[in-house]
Amino acid sequence: MQPIRYLLVSTLLLVMATAAASQPVREFSGRQSSVTAEFTVEAPWILDWRLNGDYEQMIALDVQLLNARTGIMVGRVLHTKRRGNGVKLFNEGGTYKFRVSSTLANWTLRVEQLTEEEAELYTPKQRSLVN
């Protein structure tokens, strides 16, 4: 019984330390398409996103990362037609903006600065070929 208790306490402490260590950089939210204000981050960092809407069959969200100085698209970071949330890890810092294309959706994008140790705890979601 003691080893299980030790494992639970250790896990809880690790989760609490990880949650407290990330530093919020910027948060953006909206109901329509827009280009966000610029933000500056160092690697590693995460995009924590949330999407909700009244019309489940009709919502859509597409988010592109832009170089804030040039306006050139760095890449598409999110595309979904479903309510939900998620986290995406980035290993390159810089000064960026998001171009958000939204259809009948309420969205929130939160940028958080991580430490190297925190970034190592993130593991990519395994996608199956069959849903």
What name does CATH use for the topology?
Jelly Rolls
Proportion of residues in β-strands: over 45%
User: Considering DSSP H and I runs of 4 or more, what fraction of the residues is helical?
Assistant: 10-25%
Structural class: alpha+beta
For the record, what CATH class applies?
Answer: Mainly Beta
Total tally of structural domains: 1
The CATH architecture designation is: Sandwich
Calculate the mean pLDDT score and round it: 86
Spatial gap, N to C terminus? 38 Å
Give the helices and strands as they follow along the chain: HEEEEEEEEEH
Rg on CA atoms, Å: 17 Å
**What ranges have pLDDT less than 50 throughout 5 or more consecutive residues?**
12-18
**Number of distinct beta strands:** 9
Tell me the overall shape: globular
Number of helices: 2
Largest sheet: 5 strands, antiparallel
3D architecture notes:
The structure is a single chain. The protein is α+β, with helices and mostly antiparallel strands and 131 residues long. It has a single domain (24-117), classed as Sandwich (Jelly Rolls). The protein is 20% helix and 47% strand. It contains two helices and nine strands. It has helices at 2-21, 116-121, and strands spanning 23-30, 34-35, 39-41, 45-52, 60-67, 73-80, 84-90, 94-103, 106-113. The strands form two sheets. Strands 2, 3, 5, 6 and 8 form a five-stranded antiparallel beta sheet that branches. The longest helix is centred in the first third of the chain and has 20 residues, at 2-21. The radius of gyration is 17 Å and the shape is globular. It starts with a helix and ends in a 10-residue tail after the last helix. The relative contact order is 0.29. Mean pLDDT is 86; it is low at 12-18.
